[in-house]
Design brief:
- The complex is a heterodimer.
- By secondary structure, chain A is an alpha+beta fold.
- Chain A is 23% helix and 17% strand.
- In chain A, strands 8-7-6-10-11-4-5-12 form an eight-stranded mixed β-sheet. Chain A has a three-stranded antiparallel β-sheet with strand order 14-13-15.
- The two termini of chain B are 28 Å apart.
- Helices cover 60% and strands 2% of the residues of chain B.
- Chain B is mainly alpha-helical.
- Chain B has helices spanning 2-21, 26-36, 48-64, 72-88, 101-116, 120-131, 167-171, 174-194, 212-241, 250-271, 292-304, 311-328, 346-355, 360-370, and strands at 97-100, 135-138.
- The chains are: A alpha+beta, B mainly alpha.
- Chains A and B meet through β2, α1, α2, α3 and α4 of A and α1, α2, α3, α4 and α5 of B.
Chain lengths: 412, 371
Amino acid sequence: MAEDSLGDPACGGMDGRQDPVLSSGGFNFPEYELPELNTHAFHVAAFGELWRGRLRGEGDLSLKEPPAPALPGAGGVSDSGSEDAAVARDLGCSLETAAELRAVCGLDKLKCLQEGEDPEVIPENTDLVTLGVRKRLLKHREETLTIDRPCRQETFAYEMESHAIGKKPENSADMIEEGELILSVNIFYPVIFHKHKEHKPYQTMLVLGSQKLTELRDSICCVSDLQIGGEFSNTPDQAPENISKDLYKSAFFYFEGTFYNDKRYPECRDLSRTIIEWSESHDRGYGKFHTAKMEDFTFNDLYIKVGFPYLYCHQGDCEHVVVITDIRLVHHDDCLDKTLYPLLIKKHWLWTRKCFVCKMFTARWVTNNDSFAPQDPCFFCDVCFRMLHYDAEGNKLGEFLAYPYVDPGTFN
Amino acid sequence: MGSSAGLKDDCEALLSRFQEMDSVRFEDFTELWRSMKFGTIFCGRMRNLEKNTFTKEALTSAWRYFLPPYTFQIRVGALYLLYGLYNTQLCQPKQKIRVALKDWDEILKFQQDLINAQHFDAAYIFRRLRLDRAFHFTAMPKLLSYRMKKKMQRTEITEEFKDPNDRVMKLITSDVLEEMMNVHDHYQRMKHVISADKSNPEKSLNLIKDDFFDNIKNIVLEHQQWHKDRKNPPLKLKVKGGEEKIERNSQQSERCERAESLAKIKSKAFSVVVQASKSRRHRQVKVDFSDSESSQVQTKTTRKRRNKETLKPAGRKVSSRDRGDMQNLHKEDKSLSLSMPVVTEEDEENESFSETEFTAPKRRRKQRTKS
């Protein structure tokens, strides 16, 4: 698999300096290639194995609930006794020391609030800088806000982040295995608005190492998949049957010099061929590109750089930048249901365009050259559209062109 | 970034007080912890999302001090701090501590050192954290999303917590000294053996100074002592001085002084405010020195109202630079400037908005009505 892809078009002046010498302890040890930006390329499964090798047999990988520590004083004597024995064995100290340790290092030693003190109230005479800042903020909120509650975007973001935490599957066959890798992938929206100059909106998905690339492809919701081609001013009731998702099924992922094409259906074409031919036609300075089938590869089989932008292309020209931000071992507090992955945990909230008439419902139609509309193009919800443009019998009034419109905020 | 700067200050305050205690016992740490009421750092009616982000940040800040090149005592203090933060956090389920693969071996070695040195409480704490599965085992210490900021923020290493960079000691370690001693003795013995007179070696074989080895040993010991002396008085002074950064390594003091003088000049420039005319009295610019960030924000809001005061254009040009400089005030001069389109994470934006929440809503509202 070609890793020396010197040219990622997004990279511009940055040349990807491959420096395998940097990686200590083997090639698959993630190390920074560009400091604080991305790592060099490594094999995902091999990286997973490096971790598992170090943690095997220690109980770190287990997905069962960890045993709670015996509290000093409380609990059966036998519990603390066996725990002390374990401590003595691990640390090489005596049993008395172990018992003493349990008392000295207990959680009660960290208690800073007295009984009955509210954990939400900031104590009065505090030296902590963080608390000073927070106090000022709270005071300001009290003074300026009538009702102090989280706005719905914040609630939405929090829900997305935590809705699947700790979920266990009903069917135990769907349980994630110990030592499974979870990759967190940022998929950026393809639109380029000026207002997104500084912060490009993206969605974050968690995907398992053992899942195929096609599973991620299927779970990416992009509004361009739902576009309906065609002009429907004469036949507004004809429910559009073919959305673009069904018509144009080709897609590819680009990782480290290889294009992974979706070839599950006979209609799927190799979209990457154009790029490969272009690259090979002249000496453009890119290494050799390879192609492969998306459905044959899982994330564990890939060589990738963490933090480096890659590409997902579908519908022929709808391109999304894809960045793998993190890879880690699964933890017992994560969502343990395989069927819920790829899991969406972060989504940019997009304001939907409302109907021009009622300003309440999301627009479903867009018209051009419309004699009834004050602007071109103009957006309408279904009801207002029909009321304005058609009479009671359903005859078309006036001249206009109407197209079904799918708002990018549909997925909110 | 309000909360992260505050966190850094609080962690460093705790760790430097722990360092002064000159102990690595958990009991001493908990005394400090309780006296500073550090566990209350999570108080204050944080909403859920904010709680999560703040806790993650707190754990990341504390984690930095746990890895080399910090001194042994600071690393033990950081371990205790992590234990404290992990157990007093209010998030449910608990936020975890991220460990990268490249750091794990170092940490295990540290644990082994603790056990060998019989610091059982520290070893017990680490074992406890591991048993509670407080760690996330990851590829890299933080999430990487190819953010291309114009000025990369380099995390600076607090110099007082480091062992001073001692090239001499790295060259002449105790192993090397022992080796040298052995070789020297062997050499002397050989000379005795091959000379005719067994008690006195031949004069012609005197090619080196006999006390060569002793000299080196003395010089090295003197050097070590000098280092210790250099380190200790500065610490005492810092305690008394508090805010004053009197003693640091010479390099950093120069940089800091220069940065500080720059900041002084800038703040002097901004403190001079043009008096508004009578018709514009209600829009007089007020400079608030209590919070340097808010003073910049204030000048920005007045700018947006298209004030004709002469300070404004200068303010606008300098404020963005000033912001960057303020950020670099205590950081190293090296900055990676990159010329790519800016792609930053959404969280950053939300956090920075919440920090300047005082005036940000007003600012945003103003923008909308104008456009």
